[in-house]
Specification:
Helix content: 40-55%
Mean pLDDT: 79
Shape: elongated
Strand content: 15-25%
Distance between the termini: 61 Å
Number of strands: 8
Structural class: alpha+beta
DNA sequence: GGGCACAGAAACCAGTTTCC
DNA sequence: GGAAACTGGTTTCTGTGCCC
């Protein structure tokens, strides 16, 4: 009975998903759905609520698409996604037996939930969450040290902060492998283009958000003695990204526009643009602004899936 | 510009300590 | 006692510099 109710909800509220052609749902979105679903189970949400939750409904509707993300030989997954794979595996869904688009029965769903719950009670699962937070703090610390070292080495730095992303209408087609490919090209160009001739430091991190999908936060520090126009440099870097990610409607957000800087200025938080070593507040703000790349508090922005061995955070040495 | 070696950084994992 | 935080060793990746 409960399940029939569920199916009714599906018909009413998710026609848009049914109407989508196969594989047109954003990879990032699918992963976040899985995580939300697993999180409900981990939080010991009552079964009825889990079954009626939108993430469960969507997973049921597009399970085949979720299952296509299972490629453990090529990707590493977060603990939540691994818990989901474990549950699917126990149900025999990962051996190619479920690709006929059939609905799971009530009993199978309950079984899946139980297996995910069991997995989430293992030490390794809990451990991974705390290790990830700790790793983020380590990265943050190393980034802070790096920035402070830079400030000691250069009396003036021109600091650029840009976010790279993709057009909303193209996000459904962006795979994590595309993001890494674009980032690799961007980093290669950084070493080639005359634009970066006086670059003294840079850093990046790849993130995944519910709204923005995959995106990259990046910073670039140029010699303050060679460049003054941070707004212009940010725009040129943004244009380069747009050219690299043109297939997916590459877009960027510059924090160095006069409007953005004015907002920071008013809040006394301006840490980008020209930063003089003698300006203590500016230097601290710079640490804060660039430290955002490895902010441990951004727990919902981490990557749920990444190509094996690849990093999510990096900086020039 | 491409290939290669090397050093350092990021990630992973297991063990230990600290805190509640 | 269990969870969270921390440490240290190891592996793997990446940036850099050098050579051709």
């Amino acid at each position: 009975m409960l399940w029939q109710c569920c199916q009714l909800v599906i018909r009413v509220s998710d026609m848009s998903i049914l109407a989508r052609p196969l594989c047109s749902i954003s990879e990032s979105f699918l992963l976040i759905q899985i995580e939300t679903f697993v999180d409900l189970i981990v939080q010991r949400t009552p079964l009825r609520e889990v079954l009626n939750h939108l993430s469960m409904i969507k997973i049921k509707l597009t399970l085949n698409e979720h299952l296509t993300l299972f490629q453990p030989e090529y990707f590493d997954y977060s603990e939540h996604i691994n818990a989901f794979w474990y549950g699917c595996d126990q149900l025999g869904l990962l051996d190619g037996g479920y690709y006929d688009g059939q609905c799971l029965s009530d009993a199978e769903i309950e079984c899946l939930i139980n297996h995910i719950w069991q997995y989430s009670q293992q030490k390794e699962f809990k451990r991974k969450v705390s290790d990830r937070c700790y790793q983020a703090r380590q990265n943050r610390q190393s980034l802070e040290n790096y920035i402070r070292q830079l400030q000691q080495q250069h009396s003036r730095l021109l600091v650029i902060r840009v976010d790279f992303g993709y057009a909303k209408e193209k996000q459904n087609f962006v795979k994590i492998t595309d993001v890494y490919r674009h980032l690799d090209t961007m980093n290669r160009e950084r070493d080639r283009q005359p634009l970066f001739e006086h670059l003294v430091a840079s850093g990046w991190c790849i993130e995944q958000g519910n709204e923005k999908g995959y995106h990259i936060h990046a910073f670039y520090c140029f010699k303050g003695s060679k460049h003054q126009q941070d707004w212009y440099l940010a725009q040129e870097i943004g244009r380069l990204w747009k050219a690299i990610a043109v297939d997916f409607g590459g877009g960027y957000h510059s924090c160095n526009t006069p409007e953005s800087k004015e907002i920071y200025e008013r809040a006394n938080r301006l840490g980008i643009g020209m930063i003089h070593r003698g300006n203590g507040v500016g230097c601290e703000n710079m640490v804060h602004a660039l430290g955002y790349l490895a902010k441990p508090e951004k727990d919902d922005q981490y990557l749920r899936m990444k190509p094996k061995g690849r990093r999510t955070f990096g900086k020039t040495q």
